[in-house]
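Entry 14. Two folds queued back to back today. First construct below, sequence then structure tokens.
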Amino acid sequence: MIVAICSGGPLNEVAFSLKPDKWIGVDRGALYLVDEAIVPDAIVGDFDSVSAEEFARISKAVPHIDQFQSEKDETDTDLALEKALHYAPTEVWVTGVTGGRLDHYEAVLRSVYHLQQQYPGIIFKIINPSNEIQFLMPKQHVLHKGIYSYVSFFAYGQTLTNVTLRGVKYETTDEVIEQGTTRFTSNEILSEGSISFQGGICLMIKSRD
């Protein structure tokens, strides 16, 4: 089960080409889906970013809406992530959160980081039309090239040790990725590769031009 969440960031940051099993619309992101003739399976948010007319259009498309007060501890995307977990997903994709306000993007990144630690059996990804962001736990991970040519790795939280890369342009064996280094930016996936490491959590960004 793959659940995709569409938040209300800049429209050009939404990956409408995604084909999940279920869609969750978040605030203005619900309107984005409706305008693309995608009927969300669930809608959450405080809807402070849509007009009364737009909210009426959303309500007509989806009969049940989880509406919350604007004054709350959780962000709208946090509420959507909680909703996604109710479907017992194998993967959760979040789109419409990059670009625009950087504080909103940072909040989503932190939420996904904590959820990946809490639910290591679920794959969480942040996706826009050109990038895919994912947190990796310590073990070996297969790297599929797909539509992405470039891949970068960053230490998130603490230093990564015994970093071994295979099937990429710049391979390594038992290297270290320290906090703050940019040395592992813009590698290239040749076909199907892998990364393995110990300690910490790795922030992986796959990109295309």
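Second construct, same run, same settings:
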Amino acid sequence: MAGGTIMLVDDHAVVREGYRSVLQKQAGLKVIAEASDGAEAYRLFKEVRPDVVIMDLAMPGVGGIEAIRRIRQWDRDARILVFTMHQNAGFAVQAIRAGARGFVTKTSPPETLVRAVKDVLAGQIAVSPDIDHQLALGRLAGETVAADVLSAREFEVLQMLLAERTTQEIAEALHISPKTVANLHSLIKDKLGVSSDIELVRLALRQGILTQTDLGETAGGTAT
């Protein structure tokens, strides 16, 4: 496919403006819709049916992994390319497991994003070189890797728990009951072999799912 229509999903308007500018310089590529969170992305996707969705992962409310899962449930042929600050192969594994067709980090040069969009439009899987290298290095030794054992829904709940979202907040964002959230919380700990939330945070830090910067933001509002 030489060209196609695109929907951008990112909670920062200035970021959307930046890569809209990059993409629309390419012959045949046209941005036809923008969303600022996963719920809006799901609604707009059904309205405009873009050829490819460029999706951030970290957004308020419904995050990228859950949005990918919902869109792919509604349209099994949806082409979704993740474009994110997460430089961790575990997120790439989870995104692709949820139904994404590619994963590019925001530290990549613009031409990497353009190439990935064209590859996804052509029906290929596209992964930026930095993540591809991590995947080639293999998994952490001697520890259960969250990205390997958790489902896309469980991984999304894990991210929300690490962001200190309450059970009620998670239930409302994912349209599930608080009891289901509590059951998923327990199941996540069981699958990862940890017995407490403190151990869960430590594991997330070791595996790059959570960073010290993230901890500073949740504990103090905004990290400096």
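Quick look at the second one. The radius of gyration is 17 Å. The chain has twelve helices and six strands.
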